[in-house]
Amino acid sequence: MENTVNGLTFRSNFDSGNLGRVECIGGDDYMCHVTGDCEGTPHANSNSTWFHFEVQGGDVGRTVMLHIKSLNAQTKLYGHDMRPVVRKGKGSWSRITTRPHTVATQQHFVVSWPYTFDGTDPVRFAFTYPYSYCELKSHLAQWELLAKQSSIVFERSVLTKSLDGRDLDMLRITSPKGRDSDKKIALFTARVHPGETPASHMLHGLIDFLLSDNPQAAALRANFVFKIVPMLNPDGVARGHYRSDTNGVNLNRMYDCPKMDKHPTIYAVKKLFLSLHGTGRLTLYIDFHAHATKRGCFVYGNALAGEKQVHNLLFPKLLSINNELFGYQDCNFSQKNMRTKGKKDGLSKKGTGRVALYNESGMVQCYTLEANYNMGMPSDADPCPVTYTPGLLRSVGESVLVTLLDEHRMNPSSVLHSTTYQDLNGVLLSISRSLKQVNSATSFERIKKTLSLPTIPRADDLAPRQRVFKQRPKRPADRGE
């Protein structure tokens, strides 16, 4: 879309752009209508939260009022001071300085804010920090060059093509030393929902860290092979959709029975997962997402039985130790959250990546990692939660890798010894006690053996090592993924 109104040119005809039409409603007030996913096609649906557009032609000092209309009613998100982002020219993105005003009725949800031009450069606005398909391609080229200069194995391949013919890129990162057959495998994916850009920022931080000269990164490359699919829904991203692909499909409900002709990217990733699992070396699968209603950073995991659940909880517990943005107590591992159906589409979470792939493989550590679009959770100690930036989100990706080292006792600079847990055994014991499944050192030894943990101290030496978590307010039931 490109439209000039009162000397201002509005455009969204670029990768990840979304703006349907603009009308002046008096003075310098402009009603900007967002386009819903697949609008104008037989596949149109009600998903309409992402917007991304450019405005050019404003004189210095001119103030306009922008009203973003045709949005889903994200009342919780904006009620917690969610602010869109702005970029002037080729500068950096930042959140707008004025808290937006919202109006919610049964028919409409409108978000409004003023903007004063201070230069002649075009100005872009977006729902949150963008991460487009073209931007990914640029970063892939930069990472490839960096890896080549650093003698790191960085293989880039096209796993398949999307419905619109875009690449489904896959990365393989490891050290040239050692045999792959001696290394465990971790699989990371992101952006099955195109509007969930925090997922890409987290994964970006993960890849940056993995390619760095940090000793922890070197240990990761020496002991693991990383398979990464950074953008599962490139068509939705390029088209400026919020949750759907070209055909209006929520691809994160298709993992239980994907079709090559209808869901080629999910079909290919599921095939990849099962192939990697068949080697016996796949140890971790994480699908990166973002969340609109539930604040903070957390995972959705599966509800398992006995010692498997201890293993299942270990990774998020360690992640909460390595990054204060991550809330272990905010995670959800319930049976209900493995089969919940969406209110709008009626599709079950049995079709999500972490549930469907677990059901088919039995692999314990299958997670959905979520980060709120806006901020973390408040607490008694810190009533003003941190507002997320790309840099903070990238730190979560880094911590995922550090946690992987901790779990496999390969971290050259672990922080566990400086916590009340003291070591990995202490973390494991804390989890076991919280589940009320460990009543003796003997049963704990069985869990230790399952996880290939080192010998534990005598039961008499095991003092309680419960971490003191900050108290957080109760929240209503959430829906994500």
Overview of this structure, please?
- It is a single chain.
- The longest helix has 18 residues.
- This protein has a 7-stranded mixed β-sheet, with helices on both faces. It has a 6-stranded antiparallel β-sheet with strand order 1-2-5-11-7-8, with no helix packed on it. Strands 3-4-6-10-9 form a 5-stranded mixed β-sheet, with no helix packed on it.
- Helix content is 27%, strand content 21%.
- It is globular.
- About 7% of the residues have low confidence.
- Helix 4 packs across helix 9 and helix 7 crosses helix 10.
- The relative contact order is 0.11.
- With 481 residues, the protein is an alpha+beta fold.
- The two termini are 30 Å apart.
Q: Pairing-aware structural class of the strands and helices? A: alpha+beta
Order of helices and strands: EEEEEEHEEEEEHEEEHHEHHEEHHEHHH
Uncertain ranges: 437-442, 450-478
Largest sheet, strands/sense/barrel: 7 strands, mixed
How far apart are the first and last residues' alpha carbons, in Å? 30 Å
Count of strand segments: 18
Number of helices: 11
Sum up the overall morphology in one term. Answer: globular
Strand order of the largest sheet: 12-13-15-14-16-18-17
Mean pLDDT: 91
Radius of gyration from the alpha-carbon trace, in angstroms: 23 Å
Search tags:
single chain; 481 residues; alpha+beta; 7-stranded mixed β-sheet; 6-stranded antiparallel β-sheet; 27% helix; 21% strand; globular
